[in-house]
Amino acid sequence: MRIDILTILPELLESPFNHSIIKRGRGKGLLEICIHNIRDYAQNKHKQVDDYAFGGGAGMVMMIEPIDLCISKLKAERQYDEIIYLTPDGERFTQRTANYLATLSNIILLCGHYKGIDQRVRDHLVTRELSIGDYVLSGGEIAAMVVADSVGRLVPGVISDETSALTDSFQDNLLAPPVYTRPAEYKGWKVPEILLSGHQQKIDEWKHQQSVERTKKCRPDLLPD
Ligand code: 6GU
Q: What distance in angstroms lies between residue 120's CA and the mean position of ligand 1's atoms?
């Protein structure tokens, strides 16, 4: 899978994809993440990418032309399944959306900034708009990291233990059960006896029950009525 990220702050996006699972996925050639600086497509000598809003109002608006030029260049090289604009007024990003995006070959993530982006980008270039939650970030970059990370780790082969992505919290609308490792007792705090018992079926039942309990307590909205 290939993910192209369009931003005016490319430095912000370098580090998160160079560690751990995502780094390994890139190393194995399963995942390509390419960062593009929108400013490289600015047409005037000041490399301007934003301008005053028509009709007034506070804040600058990101111009359509540099974004269109960057997207057009990428589209000439390959077909894109989705061109996604990250915005707090987009559709809520969930595990379900991540699962869907992980089935695609090529996607573009467009990071917004300032007061917003020329509406014509949203009307004519973007195929989907996503928000990562009901709070406002200073730009779309952190949201793009969230989307690329959660999608990238689902691409087959990126996580070596195939089953582990499937047992994540949310994959079955339940939170994950608690996990423990050695020592079996620390400062008198004990690992639940059942996990040391060797009865796999009982252990699986216990884990499921813990998942349900945790979900009831922390995220009752995930449970069916
Ligand atoms: Cl995608 N962008 C910004 N700027 N803020 C957000 C967001 C996105 N999702 C939640 N808050």
A: 19
For 10, the 3-state DSSP assignment is helix
122 sits in which H/E element: helix 119-124
Residue 135 Cα to ligand 1 middle (Å): 7
> The tokens of 89 are what?
């007024």
Q: Ligand 1 pocket test: pick from 89, 91, 92, 136 the residue with the most ligand atoms within 8 Å of its Cβ.
A: 136
What are the pLDDT digits (tens) for 39-83? Answer: 999 999 999 999 999 999 989 999 999 999 999 999 999 999 999
Topology of domain 2-152 in CATH is Alpha/beta knot (3.40.1280)
Task: Name the residue ranges covered by the structural domains of the chain.
Answer: 2-152, 167-222
